[in-house]
């Protein structure tokens, strides 16, 4: 039988987990407090971290406009299999979250994206973005530099460039997959940018897209050159859609 102290701790942990809201919401939540980090916070392989809906940020700021940053500029660095939940990411960071392997992001909110909100570096496997949202990104929100799949569900994006981008000029390229289910996007340049020549696929379904394009197709490269755009609309294979609404939602 559990002691009273262990029982209380167990119930508290269960209650905290139960409050993770991964439903689609289009109103940004208020932070419960603020934590400023002098260095990136690492979540170990297979571990879970609950941010308790505090705003987590870097101090001093690591944001340098659209200059590409590294792992050390992020707020959170997730090892393979790590899960991060219930976090508000503040504006004073260059990279937000870096996933070194497949990871899970539950109810994460980015208030003001600098370079990228989250970067996925796994070589294989699936990373999940469940609930949450991002706003005010000059360029990309979800950057997919590694391989495997990024699966996004119940996500909200407002006033951003690309909600998702499969890296167009990384030194190592992959056939990447991305899926978007029940997302709401308002005022984005495009939901997904993908590389048709590398076998990328993306799908957007059951979603509301207001003043936002669905997908752009590119010819990617591994030389670091700027990739060229090959199409600006779904083609049914590289980019497929189902039940997408563009007004009144």
Characterize this entry briefly.
The protein is 6% helix and 48% strand.
Arithmetic mean of pLDDT: 93
Overall morphology: globular
The tally of beta strands, per DSSP, is 18
Radius of gyration, rounded? 18 Å
Query: Strand order, biggest sheet?
Result: 7-9-11-13-15-14-12-10
SSE sequence, one letter per element: HEEEEEEEEEEEEEEEEEE
Low-confidence stretches: 1-18
What is the number of domains? 1
CATH-level-2 architecture? 3 Solenoid
Task: Tell me the number of helical segments per DSSP (H or I, 4 or more residues long).
Answer: 1
The CATH superfamily bears the name Single-stranded right-handed beta-helix, Pectin lyase-like
GO biological process, one term: pectin catabolic process
Family: Belongs to the polysaccharide lyase 3 family.
GO molecular function, one term: pectate lyase activity
EC number: 4.2.2.2
Architecture overview:
β16 (213-219) and β17 (228-231) form a beta hairpin. An 8-stranded parallel beta barrel has the order 7-9-11-13-15-14-12-10. It contains 1 helix and 18 strands. The chain is mainly beta. The termini are far apart. The radius of gyration is 18 Å and the shape is globular. It is found in: Secreted. Belongs to the polysaccharide lyase 3 family. Its cofactor is Ca(2+).
Which tags fit this structure?
single chain, 249 residues, mainly beta, Pectate Lyase C-like, 8-stranded parallel barrel, 1 helix, disordered N terminus
What is the topological layout?
Elements (H helix, E strand, L loop, with lengths): L3 H15 L15 E4 L3 E3 L4 E11 L17 E3 L4 E7 L7 E3 L4 E7 L7 E3 L5 E5 L2 E12 L4 E5 L2 E11 L10 E5 L2 E12 L5 E10 L2 E7 L8 E4 L7 E7 L4
Parallel strand pairs: 1-3, 2-4, 3-5, 4-6, 5-7, 6-8, 7-9, 7-10, 8-10, 9-11, 10-12, 11-13, 12-14, 13-15, 14-15, 14-16, 15-18
Antiparallel strand pairs: 16-17
